[in-house]
Design a protein that fits this description.
Helices cover 31% and strands 26% of the residues. The chain has a four-stranded mixed sheet. Strands 2-15-17-16 form a four-stranded mixed sheet, with helices on one face. Helix 12 links the parallel strand 22 and strand 23. Helix 4 packs parallel to helix 6 and helix 8 packs parallel to helix 10. The longest helix has 14 residues. It is elongated. It starts with a strand and ends with a strand. The protein binds uridine-diphosphate-2(N-acetylglucosaminyl) butyric acid.
């Protein structure tokens, strides 16, 4: 097992091109199931979750070739329709094959992923939507068994703009009979990305990027070549790293509007931010001011940057209230941050952070990908040495995490424990 050893205190500088988004590429890989033949994705990040999704697609009968930033998926005429627990338990996002499998095969048997370290993570909206579209869906022996020879379009109002449920419905609806309307749909850039790819495959979708998406079913889709949208959360993580270490960084590949609120928060914390096209420049010369954050679906503040902003607040001037509205257990990591000397109190959905002048290095354990990122950022400014355990979580979603930080001048090493 690897750990990250960090010697805190370096100021980070540099330039970086952000890779494709974890939270897009996995769904795009699943969406290729909708068309028999060879689809290609480019700007694919080199992360563990892509390897797991590739393995899942192979088990469904696809030929998957991964080379550098490209992945080619050759989908058979009759894919298998079972996603086994051994893969789903490794990666919750495997649930995203549910929609395309039922659309393509008339049936999908997908292991129920269960909860994880950030929360209970329900699937009720996915299931209800498929039932509205005419599917029979049962939960038996740990599997969601869904069946319907031809799905029918439906009017679906989501209780919450769930990213996963919006994606399941989109992929189920593109070849359903008639029109599907999703009200209160998610609007994340990753949702726009999958909609655009589905349209390139021949789907008829309107209202892309809005909270009402209309899908008119077509008889069949064709394979596609598509570039994965860049990872706004990776970009945001690097931006916070710079703000914490009082450095400067030019980030390429991510439009500033994908990060509008986090960048505004960084400006409130004292950073200078300039952006144009797909480039964001960030510079920090002062100790950050503590800033309040409330996580909400896009265009609100992303929950996937919440731990990084708690880390930032932990060394800020003053105090901040951070409210987490998506994942009830995402504050678990603050106990690890406290091991570095941070002053954080949580109460339900709220965390109160009183900024300290400095943190002190210690061994800490990452409990999920973003918690891991937050702990590394804290380690970069902590005095002395920090060892981060559980870095497998970070590898699942950040390509070349250690190498990128080293490139910025950070003293961080991956070592075998
Ligand atoms: N929810 C339900 N029922 C449902 C669906 C969702 O109760 O049927 C709840 C969830 O339990 C959660 C909230 O709704 O409390 C939001 O869930 P959502 O479906 O929007 O999230 P997701 O699709 O499970 C994706 C990302 C997450 C990211 C969220 C929000 C992937 C693989 N995961 O999860 O990414 O935090 O959207 O933006 O795309 C991460 O990258 O670290 C990560 C957790």
């Amino acid at each position: 097992m690897s750990v990250f050893r960090i010697e805190g205190g370096e100021t980070l500088h540099g330039e970086v091109v952000v890779p494709g988004a974890k939270n897009s590429v996995l769904k795009l890989m699943a969406a290729t199931l909708l068309a028999p033949g060879l689809s290609t994705l480019t700007n694919v990040p080199d992360i563990e979750d892509v390897t797991i999704m590739a393995e899942l697609l192979r088990r469904l009968g696809c030929e998957v070739t991964h080379s550098g930033e490209n992945i080619s998926i050759n989908v058979p005429d009759k894919p298998d329709h079972r996603a086994d627990y051994d893969l789903v338990r490794k990666m919750r996002a495997s649930i995203c094959v549910l929609g395309p499998l039922i659309a393509r095969c008339g049936a999908a048997d997908v292991a129920v992923p269960g909860g994880d370290n950030i929360g209970s993570r329900g699937l009720d909206m996915h299931v209800e939507a498929l039932r509205k579209m005419g599917a029979q869906v049962n939960n038996e022996h740990g599997y969601l068994l869904a069946e319907c020879q031809l799905l029918t379009g439906a009017h679906i109002s989501l209780d919450f703009p769930s990213v996963g449920a919006t994606e399941t419905i989109l992929m189920a609806a593109v070849t359903a009979r008639g029109e599907t309307i999703i009200e209160n749909a998610a609007r994340e850039p990753e949702i726009v990305d999958i909609c655009e790819m589905l349209v390139e495959m021949g789907a008829d979708i309107s209202g892309i990027g809005t909270s009402t998406i209309t899908i008119t079913g077509v008889s069949a889709l064709t394979p596609v070549s598509h570039r994965v949208v860049s990872d706004r959360i990776v970009a945001g993580t690097w931006a916070v790293a710079v703000a914490m270490t009082r450095g400067d960084l030019t980030i390429h590949g991510v439009p500033a509007e994908h990060l509008a609120l986090p960048l505004e928060k960084l400006q409130s914390a004292g950073a200078q931010v300039d952006s144009g096209g797909q480039t964001i420049q960030i510079r920090m010369d002062v100790r950050p001011q503590c800033i309040d954050v409330v996580t909400l679906p896009f265009p609100g503040f992303p929950t996937d940057l919440q731990p990084q902003f708690i880390a930032l607040n932990s060394i800020g001037q003053g105090a901040a209230l951070v409210t987490e509205n998506l994942f009830e257990a995402r504050f678990r990591f603050v106990q690890e941050l406290a091991r570095l000397g941070a002053d954080v109190r949580t109460d339900g959905h709220h965390a109160l952070i009183r900024g300290k002048e400095g943190l002190s290095g210690a061994p800490v354990e990452a409990t999920d990908i973003r918690a891991g990122a937050g702990l590394v950022l804290a380690g970069l400014v902590a005095q002395g040495n920090t060892t981060v355990y559980g870095v497998g979580h970070i590898d699942r979603g950040y390509a070349g995490f250690v190498e990128t930080l080293q490139g910025f001048g950070a003293k961080i090493l991956r070592v075998d424990d």
